[in-house]
């Protein structure tokens, strides 16, 4: 009965807290659980040993086993108590967080920044357009794809699996937006790995929080990615969805690699882009799709300057509204 109750405390309480929206370190609770099981097995084994072999064992061994068993017996009660104390601390923390968030939400948001949200599939031209806009308006720019790439690269560098959500979340929390090295992160293998870690909700939560604060920089910020208009900045005054046919995008990637002196195979690139699109559009958490109020720009037949002029018209209109 005691064993059942403790198992319930150690496993069910953290689960319930997690349901309340607070992330719990299950590893810690699991450790307590196994400690408890270990103590139980220890007491049982020592008791069995003493019952059967006490007469044939030297006195010092008998007294040592008795002390050890007594110690385990006394401390076994402590494990569920530590679990309960930890659970209570987590609950208090969750309550504080909830109250704090509530206060934050009640405050009016000062409009000292302007956000341009740009989404679209790989090689659609969104990155070039984002940089062009940021330069023209003196806004900060964040290529959010680099943040997912940085997570993938960190895992790859340490030979860690790409499907362990706990490790990936840890790597995501360590991403430093000021240290995103495009030259290192742009490798093809890193992009492939990035789209795998990008399906994990815990990774997205950590990176989206960072991207969201970046979007609030003054005087404005341009963010490009897959979920900027839908998840990261749903209130952005300008949202663009850049697209182009898969063939045009594969051709661009191919030309880019060739012009940098690399070897490339057009068919392989096309296949790769199509696979990446399917993964980005088909995932459950924040799939790539245009926001309902996004302006669509198809760059299949359009050069960057024409795309920039269309975007500029929309941004100027929104800026004019913002100042009146
Ligand atoms: O844009 P880039 O190719 O650098 O992105 C790499 C991968 O990161 C994408 O294939 C996508 O899976 C993921 N990503 C994302 N959400 C973003 C930006 C990128 O899921 N906002």
UniProtKB/TrEMBL annotation:
Domain of life where this protein originates: Bacteria
Record's keyword annotation contains Endoplasmic reticulum: no
InterPro entries, A to Z: Cytidylate_kin, Cytidylate_kinase_dom, P-loop_NTPase
E.C. no: 2.7.4.25
GO biological process: pyrimidine nucleotide metabolic process
Main location: cytoplasm
Record-level Gene Ontology MF annotations: ATP binding; dCMP kinase activity
Class of enzymatic activity (EC top level): transferase
Keywords, sorted A to Z: ATP-binding, Cytoplasm, Kinase, Membrane, Nucleotide-binding, Transferase, Transmembrane, Transmembrane helix
Cellular component terms (Gene Ontology): cytoplasm
Catalytic activity: CMP + ATP = CDP + ADP; dCMP + ATP = dCDP + ADP
Sequence positions that bind ATP: 120-128
Cytidylate kinase domain ranges (all copies): 116-305
Keyword Transmembrane helix in record: yes
Localization: Cytoplasm
Residue ranges crossing the lipid bilayer per the database entry: 29-50, 71-100
Record-stated family: Belongs to the cytidylate kinase family. Type 1 subfamily.
Protein's name according to its UniProt entry: Cytidylate kinase
Organism: Phyllobacterium trifolii
